């Protein structure tokens, strides 16, 4: 993929970052959602700076779509950095129930500090952050559940901010902090495009699909062969044509419609129909940041 394939610029981010700074100053804990299939590419490293001196919890979301082995390695990777990390399918409310006790564990220093000062029942304030489409709203909805009351504006708190009381011990800011993806290099751009972070309209889907084919043949041999009954010995363009034939994506005269096949393939990847696939694994990345 060439650099100009992705026309992506953080135009109005200055304002967003300013707002985020303001919101972060109100919270004790940052719950950072990453996509389990590409935790590094879906991470905005600015959060480390923005969230200095805050408690942190990383959630590897969409773990239902990721490769289980890779996810375990990512968990170990974050743990080694001293960051508490859990995996999640945010669509499943049952999964979010355990977050409450994890939050208390992560913030136990604060709870203890309050206790020593004689402050009782001061809730931990938390906010959810992440790049677009990582599942922030889904997570908040599941975590909060139905019928949870918003606590409304509070004196001293910026007007318009809504806090949701989740339990005796946690209050959550009802709107997530939207982080901009940082596209440092072509690989990151490619992965974010595959995850659907970047609007499809500004992408060249056939090029993207060829990159996906190249990756799958190397990292997940057999997946394409099985799903579309084709040979992975062929070159990527031919594989795409064969996907078109298999999916009956044909133009007039029975000619394979590679463009349509490219969309099918990417959709099959994004929805998990190709199986549990991760785009990143710690041992293949330059992760010595
Ligand atoms: P955002 O607020 O961070 O932008 O993301 P949002 O919650 O809107 O979620 C984006 C899409 O990802 C939604 O799909 C949502 O259902 C899906 N999603 C969120 N969490 C998970 C998860 O843990 N596992 C899986 N498999 N999917 C998850 P959508 O409504 O179909 O939207 P779209 O995919 O058509 O954009």
What do these coordinates show?
This protein has twelve helices and seven strands. The chain has 289 residues and is an alpha/beta fold. The two termini are 25 Å apart. The N terminus is likely disordered. Guanosine-5',3'-tetraphosphate binds next to helix 7.
Summarize the structure.
With 289 residues, the chain is an alpha/beta fold.
Biggest β-sheet strands, sense, barrel: 7 strands, mixed
Distance between the terminal alpha carbons, to the nearest Å?
Answer: 25 Å
Percentage beta strand: 5-15%
In CATH, what is the class of the largest domain?
Answer: Alpha Beta
Topology at a glance:
Layout: H1 13-24, E1 29-35, H2 46-50, E2 55-61, H3 68-80, E3 84-87, H4 93-96, H5 99-106, H6 108-116, E4 124-130, H7 136-144, E5 163-165, E6 170-173, E7 177-178, H8 186-195, H9 205-219, H10 223-228, H11 236-246, H12 258-270
Parallel strand pairs: 1-2, 1-4, 2-3, 4-6, 4-7
Antiparallel strand pairs: 5-6
Helix pairs in contact: 9-11, 9-12, 11-12
Guanosine-5',3'-tetraphosphate binds next to helix 7.
